[in-house]
Recover the amino acids of this structure.
């Protein structure tokens, strides 16, 4: 999928998109933990870090939490993945995305990334602009992460 | 100025960096693999674009640069991410990131810190991304603050 283009039909206001739910497993939490020192080292090898609230139960409990919780950026990334799947890879070249983590995501909780179109604007000078509410909910429709996004078409 | 200590010491008006680094293909692929973004724009071998979420790790880069004492007495809780991408950063680009602590405040016994990070392409000076990061410095509220 190449992304927004002149032929892309703007979805109507109210159109809703969602990905299949994924359980926030211990492994998914740890992948993000390990990515941080690995990115920092940037030497082609995997690096690990000291215990965090995302991968060590005892450490999480010492910080007042009932157990490990997911880093919020995992859900933000899954929302971004939804936007790419729907609107194409070009969205990462010009976009706005804000997310707020309103509830902790615990081990094995199912996370469903969602988006709903709230406004579309198409002008000669600015191109196509689509505004969305974005969020993650669990399989009981509990809101976990909420936010807004704007994706842009050509000439934006 | 509260840089030079721990993240816990940061205060409104502090400037972290600038720090320059060259964005590598490995970093884009590894980060996006960790969050299951398997799209060719990230996992390919040419013209890879930096995912807008990766700027969040520039906060850690700036912390490391400006706060050699480390995190401080407790684990931070990141609770809000807010980015605008003006133009893409590509693998191979030399990038400059600068952090500015825009606010620090106490609410219900918890310390909140708001930091803006600007990312520029060094060769052109072009502003590529502006990111605002909001954290709570500790999950557990301060007891003395709650009592007051």
């Amino acid at each position: 999928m190449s992304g927004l283009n002149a032929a892309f039909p703007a979805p109507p206001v109210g159109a809703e998109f969602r990905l299949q739910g994924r359980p926030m497993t211990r492994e998914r939490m740890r992948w993000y933990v390990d990515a941080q020192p690995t990115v920092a080292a940037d030497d082609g090898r995997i690096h690990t870090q000291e215990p965090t609230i995302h991968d060590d139960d005892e450490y999480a409990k010492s910080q007042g939490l009932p157990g490990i919780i997911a880093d919020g950026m995992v859900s933000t990334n899954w929302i971004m993945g939804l936007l790419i799947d729907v609107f194409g890879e070009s969205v990462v070249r010009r976009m706005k995305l804000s997310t707020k983590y309103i509830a902790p995501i615990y081990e094995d909780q199912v996370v469903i990334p969602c988006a709903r179109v709230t406004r579309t604007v198409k002008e000669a000078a600015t191109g196509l602009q689509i505004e969305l509410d974005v969020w993650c909910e669990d399989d009981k429709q509990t809101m976990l992460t909420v936010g807004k996004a704007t994706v842009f078409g050509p000439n934006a | 100025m509260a840089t030079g200590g721990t993240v816990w010491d940061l205060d409104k008006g502090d400037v972290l960096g600038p720090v320059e680094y060259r964005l590598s293909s490995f970093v884009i692929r590894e980060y996006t693999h960790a969050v299951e973004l398997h799209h060719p724009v990230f996992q390919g071998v040419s013209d890879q674009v930096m995912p807008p979420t990766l700027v969040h790790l520039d906060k850690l880069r700036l912390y490391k640069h400006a706060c050699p004492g480390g995190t401080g007495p407790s684990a931070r809780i990141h609770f809000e991410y807010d980015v605008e991408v003006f133009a893409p950063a590509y693998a191979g680009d030399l990038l400059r990131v600068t952090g500015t602590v825009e606010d620090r405040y106490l609410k219900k016994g918890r310390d909140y810190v708001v930091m803006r990070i600007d990312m520029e392409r060094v060769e052109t000076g072009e502003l590529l991304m502006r990111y605002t990061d909001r954290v709570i410095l500790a999950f557990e509220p301060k007891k003395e603050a709650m009592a007051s």
